[in-house]
Design a protein that fits this description.
Bound molecules: pyridoxal-5'-phosphate
Helix content: 25-40%
Number of strands: 18
Largest sheet: 9 strands, mixed
Strand content: 15-25%
Shape: globular
Number of helices: 12
Length: 448
């Protein structure tokens, strides 16, 4: 296995930047009694991850590679714009995500549309714009037949296949099981023959897509999925007698280390493993698309939450904070699969000292299970202290869950020039008027 750690200094430097940002957020008033929860994004870290991704593939191939960031992992326009500046595109899976990519200035040539439930109108829009589309199933391919016949499009079009290799350690995130809802299940009776025929009948079908990794999926299983797609492309091209499939979209899904500051596994390790397992993928005959999400953003996000009350119940200390299910739905509902690291800071934003005491870190929502951690050993938190919830840059604070009508927190990007930490608003805190509008405030009399 080639999952070497990055040099420890990468993680140590990220931890140092985070610590400085927490201190600065408290000192500059971004977090405080009137802003008891705030989310922070490490701009330097995001740039470094994007650069590491590009470098990892550039080191193993000269083929053109589009790294399309999976927008669902962090659907924030300034983040997409930052990634665009770092040379990345966008993988979108809904009209909303497509609009966000557009708002960030990501062009059609750098955008890929996947999603298991595209409507005819969405498909038409994508083809009008010339955005790459990956069809999920035979019915969608039939819709594309009609659209392509009606008017030719510049869109590269592919088909998503499911190699049915098995699950990772988290069922809800395992896309390559025998019964996964995604793509054409390649091992089902007659499916492979159907796919080869589908390409033979459609000269415009030039891409092949698979996305078999995710949190909890080991690298070798991901690489096997890519090999299955590569071998299928070779079979299709041999059957049609030309290089019809010219681009392989290998999906995303690099798992993230939620246990420490080290960024493992690395993109470089994954790219090297792919080169070992599927050498033909990189020999220049195929263009490549990747769709990484979580691994680009997760470790660069921190939620800072004020301890509103510190209490004790049945002998157990409990810190009641402002970060709970609204910013960490997965952790609250499936804590065994999604443990998060939590750091303790004092009221001035300095790392809290003191012996570790097992305590519950609770959120603000009105149900008993709204806990980010149970019995977590940390310096004993007191009223007015802060918790920092780490590794929350992907699928956490950008995925607000509206329980108890809790407002979306403000999100700020930070940089650390020599003169001190600077913050830029990525998203301002949600005003209460917005919550009323979202809750049908304009139709207050509708049910009378
Ligand atoms: C979610 C998703 C991704 C990104 O997955 P990560 O685990 O965030 O890297 C890529 N491609 C498709 C089709 C997806 O659904």
């Amino acid at each position: 296995m080639t999952t070497q750690a990055t040099s420890p200094t990468v993680g140590a430097a990220a931890a140092r930047r985070r610590e400085q940002a927490v201190r600065a957020a408290v000192e500059q008033g971004l977090a405080g009694p009137d802003a008891p929860i705030v989310a922070l994004l490490d701009t330097t870290g995001i740039r470094a991850s994007a650069a590491a991704l590009r470098a990892a593939f550039a080191a193993v191939t000269d083929a053109p590679v589009l790294h399309a960031f999976a927008v669902k992992a962090c659907p924030l326009v300034p983040v997409l714009r930052l990634l665009r500046a770092e040379g990345l595109g966008a993988e979108v899976a809904s009209p909303g995500e497509l609009a966000l990519a557009g708002a960030a200035g990501i062009g059609p040539a750098d955008t890929v549309l996947d999603s298991p439930a595209k409507t005819p109108a969405e498909l038409r829009e994508a083809l009008d714009l010339g955005i790459a589309v990956n069809a999920d199933n035979p019915q969608e391919l039939a819709r594309l037949d009609a659209l392509v016949e009606a008017s030719p499009s510049a869109s590269p079009i592919g088909l998503r296949v499911n190699p049915q290799l098995g699950a990772g350690s988290i069922d809800a995130l395992s896309t390559a099981t025998a019964t996964s809802k995604f793509g054409v299940a390649l091992l089902d009776d007659g499916a492979r023959e159907w796919v080869v025929r589908a390409y033979a009948e459609r000269p415009w079908l030039t891409r092949l897509h698979t996305h078999s990794g995710s949190q909890g999926v080991a690298l070798p299983l991901m690489a096997q999925g890519v090999r299955v797609a590569y071998e299928l492309a070779e079979e299709i091209n041999a059957a049609v007698g030309r290089r019809q499939v010219d681009t392989l979209d290998i999906g995303g899904g690099l798992p993230v280390n939620f246990g420490s500051d080290e960024e493992t596994p690395t993109y470089a390790a994954y790219a090297r493993l792919l080169k070992e397992e599927v050498p033909g993928l990189f020999d220049g005959r195929y263009g490549l698309v990747t769709e990484f999400g979580r691994s680009l953003l997760a470790k660069h996000g921190t939620v800072l939450a004020r301890v509103e009350y510190a209490k004790s119940s049945g002998g157990r200390p409990i810190a009641v904070t402002h970060a709970g299910v609204q910013i960490a739905a997965r952790t609250v509902y499936a804590p065994a699969s999604w443990p998060l690291r939590i750091e303790a800071y004092d009221a001035k934003g300095r790392p809290k000292k003191g012996p570790a005491v097992a305590q519950d870190i609770a959120g603000p929502a009105c149900f008993a299970g709204d806990l980010l951690a149970e019995n977590r050993p940390l310096p004993l938190l007191e009223q007015g202290d802060y918790t920092a919830v780490l590794d929350t840059g992907a699928y956490y604070f950008a995925h607000h869950y509206s329980y108890n009508s809790l407002a979306r927190p403000g999100i700020y990007g930070f940089t650390d020039p020599p003169e001190g930490v600077r913050f830029a608003p990525v998203r301002t805190p949600q005003p209460i008027e917005d919550l009323i509008a979202e809750a049908g405030g304009a139709h207050a009399d509708a049910l009378l």
